[in-house]
Design goal:
alpha+beta, binds adenosine monophosphate, single chain
Length: about 475
């Protein structure tokens, strides 16, 4: 019997299909397996309730500074004409060339999600005739910005900035006031920062400097990294931003812009530094600091976290930055008007604050809650809801957790919220018309009349200073 030949499977080599890059970054782990679940777009992120305290703290810091230094809040739309940013930030910059969310709307207008807010602030200044009012006009903002950048740690496609702008005054004291504000924004929350500062002069000075810089770098061309070779032709000032090790010695020896500044720009810079000395804002002179956007003139600065000596923060990227932009208002169709401003990245600021607290092993003094109400049993729960509402109406902030039934669980919750007092209502207290006030630090408890709890609690809380510490 002849053996049946086994059919030979033809081996056809399948072409290798490149796996599409995942379009999302964060895995959705909450699905039930049956229905499609939704994820975030690449580079987007949620700000979760667990981080609310940090966001709130920074927001309060900005709001408080705005109030004390008299900056008015300006809200501009997220969507603007694309040319607004192309003209102000400048072609040849990363933001305009690579990172703008540009698209056509239904009327075929080219629009963009704002990549930054200074251009919008200047647009609003011109549009609403603010140049007719007493100068300078001081404005601040807080909100999301969008850049179609390659996402990585600390770099998102939607992120938030707080910013302050002073339009209509060329005096160096305005630069110093803004830098002081940026410094206080962090100092008020206990996060130490220092300012890196430079002057990039006016365009004529910068042009002469660029010529000298290009001449110097051309002579070293063969030693440069590929990016720097490109920068040399495209945007020579960015040569000073190079982080590649092989370019560092060349960068260190490069000509410095300070030497190209004329008398007026030099005087301006010296005065800014004198003011900073006066208000004791720590700064570092950084001749290589040029910033990424086109519109800056003279003063430019960036803000960095510093830990104690020898301790480096987790990341060395800037928390924020800014500078003077004396030509932008005119460039955008307004009258010649000097101006300066800065913006701070909130995501990076929150991360820096957390890293600092971890490194120093300090807890964030967050609680602005006055008490926690713990309840035991149905009647007590009813009474508790009433008490919470009454105390809220009297201006006290009270927390509670109706999903926990045990006293232990509720006191643990009170503890983690760092409230100074717990109010305890059980069956007996409801019948007696009383309530227990427990000092969360000492554990001492006292039984008081329910009608008097507001008065007694307020009296106890008045012994606390603003930082939640007992005097
Ligand atoms: P810039 O407008 O580029 O000077 O940025 C000012 C600050 O905004 C930076 O120092 C960052 O803190 C923050 N920032 C800028 N771009 C991003 C981004 N893609 N993701 C998160 N934060 C950003």
């Amino acid at each position: 019997m002849s053996k049946k030949k086994m059919p030979v499977k033809k081996l056809v080599k399948k072409p290798k299909i490149e796996k599409a890059k995942p379009r999302v970054e964060v895995k959705n782990e909450g699905g039930n397996g049956n229905k499609k679940t939704y994820n975030l777009l690449r580079g987007m992120h949620d700000v979760l309730p667990k981080d609310e305290k940090y966001w709130k703290a920074f927001y309060h810091s900005a709001e408080n500074l705005a109030e004390h230094f008299q900056f008015g809040r300006l809200e501009t739309p997220l969507l603007e004409e694309a040319s607004l940013f192309i003209r102000s930030i400048g072609k040849g910059t990363d933001v305009v060339d690579k990172e703008m969310y540009i698209f056509e709307d239904r009327d075929a207008n080219k629009v963009t999600l704002r990549p930054e807010n200074t251009a919008s602030v200047v647009r609003a200044y011109i549009m609403h005739g603010m140049w007719n009012m007493t100068q300078p006009i001081k404005m601040w903002y807080w909100g999301p910005m969008f850049r179609y950048d390659r996402p990585q740690a600390g770099r998102f496609r939607e992120f938030h900035q707080a910013g302050f702008e002073t339009i209509g005054d060329a005096d160096p004291v305005q630069d110093a006031e803004l830098i002081l504000l940026a410094h206080n924004f962090y100092k008020d929350l206990g996060l130490p920062v220092e300012i890196h500062i430079n002057s990039i002069g006016m365009p004529e000075e910068r042009q002469k400097y660029k010529t000298a810089l290009v001449e110097y770098y051309r002579s070293k061309r063969s030693y440069l990294c590929d990016d720097c070779k490109q920068r040399l032709n495209k945007n020579p000032l960015r040569l000073l931003d190079c982080k590649q090790e092989r370019c560092q010695p060349i960068k260190d020896e490069a000509p410095q812009i300070i030497a190209w500044l004329e008398e007026d720009s030099k005087n301006h810079f010296t005065k800014v530094l004198e003011y900073l000395d006066e208000v004791e804002v720590p700064y570092v002179l950084r001749p290589s600091l040029v910033r990424g956007l086109d519109y800056y003139t003279r003063t430019v600065f960036e803000i960095y976290t510093v830990l104690a000596e020898g301790e480096l923060p987790g990341s060395q990227s800037a928390l924020g930055g800014g500078g003077r932009y004396d030509l932008l208002v005119e460039e955008m169709g307004g009258k010649p008007t000097p101006a300066a401003g800065f913006s701070l990245g909130i995501e990076r600021s929150v991360t820096a604050l957390k890293q600092y607290m971890d490194a120093k092993q300090v807890k964030f003094a967050v609680t602005d809650l006055d008490a926690f109400i713990a309840q035991l049993g149905d009647q007590a729960r009813r009474r508790a809801l009433k008490t919470i509402n009454e105390l809220r109406a009297s201006g006290l902030k009270v927390s509670y957790n109706f999903s926990k039934n045990s006293l232990k669980g509720q006191l643990e919750a009170a503890n983690s919220l760092q409230v100074p007092y717990a109010l305890i209502l059980g069956q007996k207290e409801v019948q007696d018309g009383t309530i227990i006030i427990r000092d969360m630090e000492s554990g001492v408890q006292e039984i008081v009349d329910q009608k008097k709890v507001e008065h007694i609690l307020k009296k106890k809380l008045s012994r606390f200073d603003g930082n939640g510490k007992k005097e």
